[in-house]
Amino acid sequence: MKPGAGLRATPWHCLGLALVLLAGAPTARAQQSVGRFDEAHTRFGVELLTRWGQRVHGDFPRYEGRIVALDDQRRQVRVRLLTSAVRIGDSERYTQMARGSSFFDAENHPFVEFVSDPIDIRTVETGGPLRGRLTIRDVTRIETFHILPASCARPARDCDVVAHGQVDRYAYGLDAWRLALDKDVRFSMRVRLDTDVSP
Q1: What pTM was estimated for this model as a whole?
Q2: What residue spans define the domains of the chain?
């Protein structure tokens, strides 16, 4: 199955940063989904840090999400990452641990979800905070991620919108391997829109 296949609705903080991708969607589209994620470029990553300083990278290859135009200037991003598909590097051991009952618990909690607060579309160019509700294992907390300044004139079109942030895993019941893993889990997003989507 291709990344995002099946779950990727019409288009996920950090995590949820694709929000600003739609700079320019008209008011008539308010409260409607606009845009589709370009699955060739869009990536949702996760990073774990061992007690010995080793960084273990993973990703969520299957996701669904949408960008909602609230009005001319504000967007909201809603993303769900499929926990049963999370991969941790090339390690089957870490992957099964991440999907297991002491971490994301994919069997009982199939999604990591992020719903952003309304954000000004200019933030995609300048960079800045991305605040919203993150839900893991039925625990919802307000988290703030960070959007990096754009590296091109048309972010989300000609270059990725990039955001990242970290959360305290213990606050969400991600208790596995306390002696081996640091308490922080880092999430990242690289989002781009399909080129054939009208803004």
Answers
A1: 0.79
A2: 18-191
